[in-house]
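Your task
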Amino acid sequence: MRFVMLMYPGPQAETEQSPVPDGPEGEKLLNDMMAFNQRLVDAGMMLGGEGLKPTRHGARVRFAGGGKTAVVDGPFTETKEVLGGYWIIEAKDLADAIAWARQAPCPAGEVIEIRPVWTPEDFGPEAAAVERAQMEQIEAQKKDG
């Protein structure tokens, strides 16, 4: 089963500096996070993951219906609710995903939300076939350029 683990680091997510503090404490946190990611890779579970820059560098597109949209430039949310990064993992079930999230080397106050990901198979064999074809196209594009 595929899950996304969403990291909410609090106000730190909105700073322009690296999310890793300077000095020995930050170096340890970075090394611990890289080791955690490697354990996920070694276990064959990690499908992706990245840290996110502050919301001031982003935008939200809000859909109003009838083909109308509105764009809101960042920053656009309370800092306690800002998504700071994510992992996409393949786990046996929610309990397995929770067990892995509990091992993340996060400082006190951070939150990791775990949510199952919809897969094309959830929408039937036709959607799964379309998704496979799209993935093959993406792989071919990577090889060509």
Notes: The chain has a mean pLDDT of 89. The CA atoms of residues 7 and 112 lie 5 Å apart. Residues 125-144 form the longest helix (20 residues).
